[in-house]
Each structure stands twice: as structure tokens, then as C-alpha cells.
Amino acid sequence: MAYILQVDFKMDGPFGDEMAVGFKELAESINEEKGMLWKIWTEDAEAGEAGGIYLFETKETAAAYLEMHSKRLNGFGITAINSKIFSVNESLTKINKGPVNA
Fold first, then answer.
1. Number of domains present in the structure of the chain
2. β strands within 1-102, DSSP E
3. pLDDT below 70 — which residues of the chain?
4. Quick check: is 18 in a domain?
């Protein structure tokens, strides 16, 4: 069973193309995290929020990544982090073309 990790937090930027350039190496390193299948980067420049939706192989790998990522964000001065881990209903998700096997 796959697990979704949802993370969001307040951030002053960068956003858009500037974010894509500035966080390219970070994005590449995330691909090396144990159990991580994919990530969708999220941002709302008007609200000053950013985060991501991740798919992990197991609840344990999602929780381990969240712990590490929270410490990294704390190091950047980001302390108000919202996060949730959800199990994925793969049967229903496949009907709606969700990339659960990506």
C-alpha cells in the first residue's frame, strides 16, 4: 500500500521559475530518499505558502522523511509546518488516473 505525505508551511519565496532554479539540487536529492516514489511541489505566492505532496512506498518511509524534512525546514527558520500522512486507496485512485504506480 502506498502512502501520501502532505506538507505545507509559510515561506516568503522564491516562487515560480525562481523557485525552480533555486531548489533544483534539492529536488534532485529528494529522488534519492528511501521509499519516495514521486513529489508534486506546491506553492501559493499570494498566501506565502509552499510545500509538497509526496507518494511513499510505506508509512514508515513517509514518517522518516517527514522527520528529516522537518529538521531541515527548522534549520531554514521554518517552524510552523503542517503535515499529514494518508494511506492511499489504490483501487479508487486508479479509476481517477492517480499516479499510484509511478
1. 1
2. 3-10, 36-44, 49-56, 81-87
3. 101-102
4. yes
